[in-house]
Amino acid sequence: MSTFRERVVSGLLWRSGVAGTQQITQVLFTILLARLLTTTDFGLVAMALLFTQFVQSFSQVGFGAAVIQDQEISEAQVSALFVVHVGINLAVSLACCLAAPLAAEFFHEPGLTSVVAVLSWVLLLTSLAFPQVLLRKRMAFREYSSHEVAASLVGNVVAVAAAFAGLGVWSLVIRPMVQRLVFAVSIWRVARWRPVRPSFAGVGKHLRYGLHLLGSNMFTFASQNTAPILIGRYAGAETLGCFRIAFGLAVVPAQQVQAVLTTVLLPALSIFHGDRAAFRRKAYASMLGLGLVYVPAMLGLAAVATTFVPFAYGEAWSAAATFLVMLAGVGLIKGFEHLLRCVILSAGRSGAVMRITAAETLSAVAFLALGGSIFGANGLAAGCLAAALVSGLLTLRAAHAAVGGEPVFLRAIGRSLLAGGAMAAVVAAVAVVAPWPDGITLLAQVLVGIALYLVLRVRVLSAEERSIVRGWPVAGYVLARRQT
After folding, report:
1. What is the rounded distance in angstroms from the CA atom of residue 112 to the CA atom of residue 126?
2. 207 neighbors 25 (Cβ within 8 angstroms)
3. Helices vs strands, H then E, count in the chain
4. Is the pLDDT of residue 480 over 60?
5. What is the pTM of this model?
6. What is the dihedral of CA 399, 403, 407, 411, to 10 degrees?
7. For the segment 429-461, what is each residue's pLDDT rounded down to a tens digit?
8. Nearest residue to 68 (alpha-carbon basis) of 145, 9, 152, 141
9. CA distances (Å), origin 234, targets 40, 228, 229, 329
10. In this structure, how many other beta carbons lie within 10 angstroms of the beta carbon of residue 42?
11. Cα-to-chain-centroid distance, residue 481
12. What 3-state DSSP class applies to 120?
């Protein structure tokens, strides 16, 4: 195994482990917090985050991706981008804090003013963790992954302690603040990087690259958050709280996938973008690996939604189950879309990503207006799914162009979708016919789903897929044992 391949595999393992650990702990701690707090508490914080993220979307310039993509950037240029990055985020955090009363007025919730004023500073704390970009560029993932997990655990533990202490909605405000602060402090020690005298000469191309991603991020925010904004304004905090629980279960995993892919694959694929054949092979293998795991996870989540939500969160959260079925489809599409966009960005086509997100935003407005006017909050969730499908198809087309026009990505996930679809249908049927309590039914669904998917997927492995899977440490061993 080559040194480069070892670094990529190690990075994927570390970052996947971090993403999985964070998702599991976040869900478990959120379940505990849901038992201690109310749907309204979650809805109020969701409203505050929607407002702060809207304001902060104007500052999401992709300096980190620009630093990673450029193999010849100097230390002085990196320092210059760091200064600009922190300066922008400081100004936006201050503006968001001052505009907090507008959020309270928009959502008709006077208590939002103080919550928004505090959460406004999450962006500044996040920007102070800039040295992680350099670790990602060097593919030094182990050095900071453990600190990221530790910061997440500290934030969640403090939030639960605050909830037990009776702080109510402030327990949910404390969680991201503590997490960002702990990680920002620790990453400087891990990276051992200090800014040098900044030089702004030659950073124009990095600014252009980053501004393309800024436009993309703004359109992405609009397309993904229009539905919760409308729910919060017209349906109230309680319904929004249920929607955000479903969003955290279904769409946040896609964001975790994005974090893994942009952290590991963006620098890895950027090295190969000059060799079209190698670039295509690496992209195909990446999509295959993601599909094998991510397809059954998201389709299975949709299949167990009506059993899982009442059992884990309580009957007060049962409205989240309907949202979860549709948002699991959004999460499935977005997970693959993040990988495809990583391929596009690795080829230096940041403008294509911005155009795709613009089209997604326009389609989202149309679908949300149609779905919301007919079916209310559930129609808005369905509109999110329709807009995600449009964006996914456009991204797929652009990614195929980036690898030379060959439909490698459809070939990589087609068999996983077939096996996963059959599995999800059977798992959903178990909930209909099983006369057991929710806990036992959920356990039966999970066990049946895992066993059925493994059997089906192994049986339909193509020769091309087998040649790739054999190179993976655990999967290759299992495949070899089965053939013997």
Report:
1. 22
2. no
3. 22, 0
4. no
5. 0.77
6. -90
7. 999 998 888 899 999 999 999 999 999 999 999
8. 141
9. 14, 10, 9, 24
10. 25
11. 35
12. coil
